[in-house]
Amino acid sequence: PGGMELLAAGRPNAVILQHAPARRFYDGFPGHAMHALDHQIQAVEVLSGKPVVAVTINHEHMTPQQARQACNQIQKSTGLPTVDVLLDGPALLVKTLQPFLRRASE
Predict the structure, then answer these.
(1) How far apart are CA 4 and CA 73, in angstroms?
(2) What's the rounded Cα separation, in Å, for the pair 69 and 64?
(3) Is the distance from CB of 14 to CB of 53 less than 8 angstroms?
(4) Which long-range contacts (CB under 8 A, 24 or more apart) does 1-8 make?
(5) pLDDT in tens, 54-84
(6) I need a surface site. Which of 14, 47, 86, 102 has the fewest CB within 10 A?
């Protein structure tokens, strides 16, 4: 399933957006340039009706240093917690999701 199906069927309370900073084209769609991250965030929020609360990055074609720099830049430009989970673990995401997990269990 694609992202829209997951958003519609999953009905999340919050969304974590996966972003590939070094990717120029949508995966599987050569020639279709990636939209700017802020537009992707807006689209997800419109389609889901829920907030994007964090960004994870896919570090393909990036060194660990470049990935961490991208996380810092994205966090600064969006104001959202941003992490490469494979490099730095999920702790930031768990902390970010805690308020949403508590609400879902009530």
Answers:
(1) 27
(2) 9
(3) yes
(4) 3/44, 4/47, 7/44, 7/47, 7/48, 8/47
(5) 999 999 999 999 999 999 999 999 999 999 9
(6) 102
